[in-house]
Here is the input.
Amino acid sequence: MNSYRIEDKYEYISRTVTDGTQRKYKKGNYFYKINKTGNEGYTEYLVYRLLCKSTIPQDMYVKYEYCRINDRLGCRSKDFLRENEQFMTIRTIYERVTGNIDLSNKLMTMENAAQRLQYIVRLINEIGLSEKDFLKYFRMMIQLDWLIVNIDRHEHNYGVIYNSKTGKFRTTPVFDNGMSLNTDRKENMTACTLSGSFEEQVAAFGYPIVPAFQIDYKAAETELKRIEKLYGKHRELNLLRSRLC
Here is the structure.
């Protein structure tokens, strides 16, 4: 396991305020996140390695390294933004389109996950991103969150990328999976993107439910055994195994 020493001057202050907010640094082209409530760094790495054994293209998810940062466990990842690009969260998009700042409250006024999905798609249409591209990305993310029990897909950790030079948008890779697999021990927590139910979120895209990706289960189990040998048997790994069965 690599160990990194990062000075305080590189601390990155996020606008997000959630239970999952970790101490974060940005040095060069890399982000460094220190564990806060559980094994977030290990979980980020575990999910990343699972995605490597899936049909999801590599450019659609962020690569994480499990490591030590200033003598504490965490993870490192490369900045996914390119030159002239900026990340726009779904909340930022809502603010720019409507002039309001209460996206969570707006979504809560809707009866079900399907209506919330339709509203988010309308926001995406307003900024000019391809609805087809966004739905492909969003379906994949929602199904992945169900598989890995990600309770922290809030309005700050998904969105789109804007290129200020070309004026074009593209979808982000999937990132910030550290609060998955019950790593924070909050067994009673549920989904929070479109609904309090993972199943309802997946069903919001309509029936029949079409899998957005596939996993090579044999290759995934081989990878989990490798990780277990390197870092020991953790409850997150055991839960992931049970989810893959």
About this structure: Confidence is low (pLDDT under 50) at residues 16-20. The first strand starts at residue 3 and ends at 4. The beta strands are 3-4, 11-12, 23-27, 30-34, 64-69, 72-78, 85-89, 159-163, 169-171. The helical segments are 40-51, 90-98, 103-108, 113-127, 131-148, 198-203, 217-231, 235-244.
